[in-house]
Amino acid sequence: MIVQLVLLFALMFLLMFARIPIFMALVGSVVLFAFIYPGLIPLPVFTQSLAQGIGSETFLALVFYFLMGEVMNRGGIGDSLFGFLDSAIGWIRGGMSHANILESVIFAGVSGSANADAAAMGSIMIPAMKKQGYPAGYAAAITEVTCVFG
Q: Using one digit for the tens of pLDDT, what is the confidence trace for 84-109?
């Protein structure tokens, strides 16, 4: 059993080091494992688990939060929110970081989910912070931290 577990993780890490996205590396390693040990995982259980994982309401909601962020970006709502927060506390040193924190607190009251906050507002705040001269890594890090914090 230990050898099989080591093989499963080795397949997963091999696929990840091959620069395959993580979710595909996870699925691919399980599929390869099922082909190597055909009787260990019953096919109906494997397909049912895969279908249940893909059909989760959380994934569907996450897609709609990305859509909401894009609609807010294209419609100008994000710019209006950004302008309001920038005028309220933008004069403080590091004001965009403070505006990002305030935005996450406001949006957390609306969505109640860190993933939704990161999906919707990350697409607004990260480009806005990069436009103001903040490094891309810093903008992404502060957005992620404030989404979890909110």
A: 877 888 778 878 888 888 877 777 76
Name 112's Cβ contacts closer than 8 Å, sequence gap at least 6. Answer: none
Single pTM value for the model: 0.52
Q: How far apart are CA 57 and CA 44, in angstroms?
A: 22
Q: How far is 14 from 25, CA to CA, in rounded Å?
A: 8
Encoded tokens for 80: 């209006």
Q: How many residues does the chain have?
A: 150
Tell me the per-residue pLDDT of 113-135, one tens digit each, with 9 for 90 and over.
777 777 777 777 888 888 888 89
What's the rounded Cα separation, in Å, for the pair 32 and 80?
49
Q: Residue-wise over 93-131: b if at least 16 C-beta within 10 A, else e? A: eebbbbbbbbbbeebbeebebbebbbbbbbbbbbebbee
What is the distance between the alpha carbons of residues 106 and 117, in angstroms, rounded to a whole number?
Answer: 10
